[in-house]
Design a protein that fits this description.
Cytidine Deaminase, domain 2, 471 residues, 9-stranded mixed beta sheet, alpha/beta, binds zinc ion, Rossmann fold, 8-stranded mixed beta sheet
Length: 471
């Protein structure tokens, strides 16, 4: 996988930046900001989490804006104390993606060396267009020329809030659309939405019932960049509720079967599927998820959900999750209830733990392997045993998969005032559909507290597993 670069901007920071940068007199404006690194398997992202506004006298704004050394020094020092990276951000008077002027190159390359040596992280340069479009680049030491710094452009700048707005760099990432196959889809929401869809990198974690349907739905809708994460293989007992799984697929890795179906059924022009046959708590899978713009959580175990919840907050990657609970009588001869819940979690949304979709103690039991230990499970109480029972029906999963994809589409197709969706429930026995806009994270929620910290949370969620143990 080619190394790529990106920036994540929480929407309140994006708003603060635009408020500061857009001047009534139309002159250029600048500021410094701090970022947390987020290191994926092949994508390095800067999560901007603090703006350092200039004081009076910190910069000159006459046509081309410039900063005074004191402002730079103050900002670099703050970055060093807080162990964060430094970003220099300015605005241009034109709309759309902005390249650098000669002055921009001079200014940014001139401070790249000092920034790297003090903070240990590469300088990030960002330019806004007057319409709010973003371009960004990191500055690395040049291999060819001693003591000089060279910029590498970011593939995207992601603004994350009620909506997910991604500013792509067209030079690095071109849209991938098959016009004829997507005629009706494009006519539903327009070409520019479809271009974004074809460039979003989506992880699907868990390719059982719901995951296989989410994959099919996204592939048909024209999504083109997939990361599939699942260690498991299909068994005969999966066939009643999994999409595209035929008799001949029994015994095959789920990621291989789903990957093949995506390529065969997908409507985008160039489809890439990265297959990760590991659990999300293994380093390679965890870091592959950090390469993505959105993650679908199609897992049913509490430990996996805990990790995905962590990724949603720490790394500012929206996670779309769904869960089905089927209740039967004691002898499994009669259905008593079936309910499913769908929620998108992450920045400024209530988390899976506060929504009671997992608990820390159940995640620990799962982590220790006790949920797979028949002896332990025999003595465990009903609520724990229900976690691994997995009663389910194709049509239930299909509804969940569809609602999950609708949550994603809301974030990228709808305007901000319509986009916000929290938790949705469906009750099969009463045919009631509900949603809950009131729930919030608890005040002392751990996940809320690590929002946007990226690699700087101080917690390592994944395990290092020796390759020899994987056989
Ligand atoms: Zn400029
Ligand atoms: Zn919470």
């Amino acid at each position: 996988m080619k190394q790529t670069y990106s920036v994540a901007l929480p929407s309140h920071i994006n708003q603060q930046l635009m408020d500061h940068l857009k001047r009534d007199d139309g002159d250029e404006e600048l500021c410094f900001a701090l970022y947390n690194p987020s290191t994926g398997a092949s994508r390095f992202s800067a999560i901007i989490d603090e703006i350092i506004l200039p004081d009076e006298g910190d910069r000159q704004v006459h046509g081309n804006v410039s900063f005074n050394p004191e402002y730079l020094e103050r900002s670099i020092q703050l970055a060093q104390i807080k162990q964060k990276g430094l970003a220099i951000i300015h605005i241009h008077p034109g709309p759309g993606f902005q390249y650098m002027s000669r002055d921009d190159v001079r200014a940014e390359s001139g401070i790249a060396g000092a920034t790297k040596s003090v903070t240990g992280l590469p300088l990030l340069g960002m330019t806004a267009g007057i319409d709010g479009a973003w371009s960004a680049r990191f500055w690395f030491r040049s291999k060819a020329k001693k003591r000089s710094y060279k910029n590498t452009w970011c593939e995207s700048v992601r603004v994350i809030g009620d909506t997910l707005k991604i500013h792509f760099n067209n030079d690095l990432l071109k849209p991938s659309i098959t016009e004829e196959a997507l005629l009706r889809t494009i006519s539903a929401w327009g070409r520019s939405v479809q271009e974004d869809i074809s460039r979003l990198r989506i992880a699907i974690v868990g390719l059982g019932s719901v995951g296989s349907m989410v994959a099919e739905c996204l592939a048909r809708t024209g999504f083109a960049r997939f990361v599939l994460i699942d260690f498991d293989r299909y068994e005969e007992k999966n066939r009643d509720r999994s999409m595209n799984v035929k008799r001949k697929h029994i015994g095959m890795l789920k990621v291989d079967v789903a990957g093949q179906a995506i390529k065969q059924n997908g409507t985008a022009n160039r489809i890439t599927v990265e297959k990760i046959p590991f659990s999300i708590y293994e380093e390679s899978a965890f870091k592959a998820a950090l390469n993505c713009d959105v993650v679908f959580s199609c897992v049913d175990r509490p430990h996996a959900r805990q990790i995905l919840n962590f990724i949603a907050y720490a790394h500012l990657i929206p996670v779309i999750d769904g869960g089905i609970l089927v209740r039967t009588n004691k002898t499994n001869t009669r259905l008593v209830g079936a309910d499913w819940k769908i929620q998108t979690v992450g920045y400024e949304r209530p988390c899976l733990e506060c929504l009671e979709q997992f608990t820390g103690s159940l995640a620990n039991l799962d982590k220790e392997g006790l949920l797979d230990d028949p002896k332990y499970m025999q003595g465990a109480d009903e609520s724990i045993r229900r976690l691994v029972s997995n009663e389910n029906v194709f049509a239930f999963s299909m509804n969940v998969a569809s609602l999950e994809v609708l949550q994603l589409l809301s974030m990228i197709v709808l305007p901000q005032y319509q986009a916000r969706l929290k938790q949705q429930f469906y009750h099969f026995t009463t045919h009631q559909f509900e949603d809950d806009h009131e729930k919030q994270c608890k005040d002392n929620c751990f996940y809320k507290g690590i929002t946007g910290l990226g690699d700087n949370t101080g917690v390592i969620m994944y395990m290092h597993i020796m390759p020899s143990l994987l056989e």
